[in-house]
Specification:
alpha/beta, Rossmann fold, 2 domains
Amino acid sequence: MTEATSLTSALRALLEKSIDRAGGWLPFDRFMALALYAPGLGYYAHGSRKFGAMPSSGSDFVTAPEMTPLFGQALAVQLQDALQATGTREVWEFGAGSGALALQLLQALGERIDRYTIVDLSASLRARQQELLGAYGDKVRWVDALPEQLRGVVVGNEVLDAMPVKLLQRTAGAWYERGVGLR
Protein backbone atom coordinates (compact mmCIF):
# COMPACT_ATOMS: atom_id res chain seq x y z
CA MET A 1 0.00 0.00 0.00
CA THR A 2 1.40 3.42 -0.93
CA GLU A 3 1.67 6.23 1.59
CA ALA A 4 -1.06 8.18 -0.25
CA THR A 5 -3.42 5.18 -0.16
CA SER A 6 -2.68 4.65 3.52
CA LEU A 7 -3.38 8.31 4.32
CA THR A 8 -6.59 8.23 2.29
CA SER A 9 -7.78 5.10 4.11
CA ALA A 10 -6.96 6.57 7.51
CA LEU A 11 -8.70 9.87 6.70
CA ARG A 12 -11.74 8.01 5.40
CA ALA A 13 -11.90 5.99 8.64
CA LEU A 14 -11.65 9.20 10.69
CA LEU A 15 -14.44 10.84 8.66
CA GLU A 16 -16.68 7.77 8.98
CA LYS A 17 -16.08 7.64 12.74
CA SER A 18 -16.77 11.38 13.08
CA ILE A 19 -19.99 11.11 11.09
CA ASP A 20 -21.10 8.13 13.18
CA ARG A 21 -20.31 9.94 16.47
CA ALA A 22 -22.25 12.99 15.27
CA GLY A 23 -25.37 10.92 14.70
CA GLY A 24 -24.88 10.15 11.02
CA TRP A 25 -24.34 13.66 9.69
CA LEU A 26 -21.53 16.26 9.86
CA PRO A 27 -22.02 19.92 8.97
CA PHE A 28 -20.04 20.66 5.81
CA ASP A 29 -17.61 23.02 7.59
CA ARG A 30 -16.65 20.27 10.06
CA PHE A 31 -16.20 17.77 7.22
CA MET A 32 -14.04 20.28 5.31
CA ALA A 33 -11.96 21.06 8.42
CA LEU A 34 -11.22 17.36 8.95
CA ALA A 35 -10.47 16.72 5.27
CA LEU A 36 -8.02 19.61 5.15
CA TYR A 37 -6.59 19.86 8.68
CA ALA A 38 -7.03 16.59 10.63
CA PRO A 39 -3.64 16.18 12.35
CA GLY A 40 -1.35 14.01 10.24
CA LEU A 41 -4.15 13.09 7.81
CA GLY A 42 -5.75 16.19 6.30
CA TYR A 43 -4.54 17.58 2.99
CA TYR A 44 -2.63 20.45 4.61
CA ALA A 45 -1.71 18.51 7.76
CA HIS A 46 0.49 15.74 6.42
CA GLY A 47 4.02 16.18 5.17
CA SER A 48 3.63 15.81 1.40
CA ARG A 49 4.75 18.71 -0.75
CA LYS A 50 1.81 20.93 -1.74
CA PHE A 51 3.43 23.98 -3.32
CA GLY A 52 6.28 24.24 -5.76
CA ALA A 53 7.40 25.08 -9.26
CA MET A 54 5.13 22.67 -11.11
CA PRO A 55 5.35 20.28 -12.76
CA SER A 56 8.96 19.39 -12.08
CA SER A 57 8.80 19.62 -8.28
CA GLY A 58 6.12 16.99 -7.76
CA SER A 59 3.87 19.50 -6.00
CA ASP A 60 0.10 19.78 -6.40
CA PHE A 61 -0.05 23.44 -7.38
CA VAL A 62 1.96 26.62 -7.64
CA THR A 63 1.27 30.08 -6.24
CA ALA A 64 2.73 33.35 -7.51
CA PRO A 65 5.32 33.69 -4.69
CA GLU A 66 6.68 30.24 -5.59
CA MET A 67 7.35 31.36 -9.16
CA THR A 68 8.94 34.77 -8.69
CA PRO A 69 9.69 37.30 -5.95
CA LEU A 70 7.98 40.01 -8.02
CA PHE A 71 4.56 39.25 -6.49
CA GLY A 72 5.89 39.72 -2.96
CA GLN A 73 7.77 42.87 -3.92
CA ALA A 74 4.67 44.41 -5.51
CA LEU A 75 2.52 43.43 -2.54
CA ALA A 76 5.10 44.96 -0.17
CA VAL A 77 4.54 48.37 -1.81
CA GLN A 78 0.81 48.09 -1.09
CA LEU A 79 1.46 46.83 2.43
CA GLN A 80 3.73 49.77 3.17
CA ASP A 81 0.91 52.13 2.20
CA ALA A 82 -1.56 50.18 4.38
CA LEU A 83 0.86 50.13 7.33
CA GLN A 84 1.29 53.90 7.10
CA ALA A 85 -2.45 54.48 6.77
CA THR A 86 -3.23 52.34 9.82
CA GLY A 87 -0.30 53.51 11.93
CA THR A 88 0.83 49.97 12.67
CA ARG A 89 4.03 48.04 12.10
CA GLU A 90 2.62 44.51 12.18
CA VAL A 91 1.61 42.16 9.36
CA TRP A 92 -0.67 39.13 9.85
CA GLU A 93 -0.61 36.41 7.19
CA PHE A 94 -3.31 33.75 7.07
CA GLY A 95 -2.36 30.39 5.60
CA ALA A 96 1.27 31.16 4.80
CA GLY A 97 1.81 27.91 2.87
CA SER A 98 5.49 27.30 2.21
CA GLY A 99 6.44 30.69 3.70
CA ALA A 100 7.64 32.04 0.34
CA LEU A 101 5.43 35.14 0.46
CA ALA A 102 6.34 35.81 4.09
CA LEU A 103 10.03 35.67 3.19
CA GLN A 104 9.56 38.07 0.27
CA LEU A 105 7.56 40.53 2.39
CA LEU A 106 10.04 40.39 5.26
CA GLN A 107 12.91 41.02 2.83
CA ALA A 108 11.13 43.91 1.10
CA LEU A 109 9.70 45.59 4.22
CA GLY A 110 12.77 45.09 6.40
CA GLU A 111 12.84 47.37 9.43
CA ARG A 112 9.53 49.00 8.49
CA ILE A 113 7.74 46.23 10.38
CA ASP A 114 8.24 45.06 13.96
CA ARG A 115 6.27 41.83 13.84
CA TYR A 116 5.10 39.31 11.24
CA THR A 117 2.44 36.96 12.63
CA ILE A 118 1.42 33.80 10.79
CA VAL A 119 -1.89 32.06 11.44
CA ASP A 120 -1.62 28.52 10.05
CA LEU A 121 -3.35 25.38 11.28
CA SER A 122 -0.99 22.96 9.56
CA ALA A 123 1.86 21.68 11.74
CA SER A 124 3.80 20.40 8.71
CA LEU A 125 3.52 23.73 6.88
CA ARG A 126 4.39 25.61 10.07
CA ALA A 127 7.59 23.54 10.36
CA ARG A 128 8.45 24.36 6.75
CA GLN A 129 7.79 28.07 7.37
CA GLN A 130 9.91 28.07 10.53
CA GLU A 131 12.82 26.52 8.67
CA LEU A 132 12.59 29.08 5.86
CA LEU A 133 12.07 32.10 8.14
CA GLY A 134 14.42 31.12 10.97
CA ALA A 135 16.82 33.97 10.22
CA TYR A 136 14.12 36.47 11.26
CA GLY A 137 14.07 35.17 14.84
CA ASP A 138 11.59 36.83 17.18
CA LYS A 139 10.26 39.14 14.46
CA VAL A 140 8.13 36.23 13.17
CA ARG A 141 5.67 34.37 15.37
CA TRP A 142 3.01 31.73 14.85
CA VAL A 143 -0.42 31.56 16.45
CA ASP A 144 -3.22 28.99 16.30
CA ALA A 145 -6.10 31.36 16.96
CA LEU A 146 -6.98 35.00 16.61
CA PRO A 147 -6.64 37.31 19.59
CA GLU A 148 -9.62 39.28 20.91
CA GLN A 149 -8.28 42.34 19.10
CA LEU A 150 -6.03 42.35 16.07
CA ARG A 151 -3.89 45.33 15.18
CA GLY A 152 -2.03 45.17 11.91
CA VAL A 153 -2.43 44.66 8.20
CA VAL A 154 -3.85 41.29 7.10
CA VAL A 155 -2.56 39.30 4.12
CA GLY A 156 -4.03 36.14 2.66
CA ASN A 157 -2.87 34.65 -0.64
CA GLU A 158 -4.62 31.55 -1.99
CA VAL A 159 -6.24 30.94 1.40
CA LEU A 160 -9.98 31.63 1.18
CA ASP A 161 -10.64 28.36 -0.62
CA ALA A 162 -8.90 26.49 2.21
CA MET A 163 -11.08 27.90 4.99
CA PRO A 164 -13.89 25.61 6.18
CA VAL A 165 -17.26 27.13 5.37
CA LYS A 166 -20.90 26.53 6.17
CA LEU A 167 -22.90 25.26 3.22
CA LEU A 168 -26.49 26.49 3.14
CA GLN A 169 -29.41 25.77 0.85
CA ARG A 170 -32.66 27.65 0.53
CA THR A 171 -35.65 25.41 -0.08
CA ALA A 172 -39.31 26.44 -0.04
CA GLY A 173 -38.49 29.76 1.61
CA ALA A 174 -36.39 28.30 4.43
CA TRP A 175 -32.63 27.99 4.93
CA TYR A 176 -31.08 24.60 5.65
CA GLU A 177 -27.54 23.69 6.54
CA ARG A 178 -25.97 21.06 4.33
CA GLY A 179 -23.57 18.41 5.43
CA VAL A 180 -22.09 14.99 4.78
CA GLY A 181 -23.47 11.61 5.79
CA LEU A 182 -22.91 7.97 4.93
CA ARG A 183 -25.14 5.77 2.80
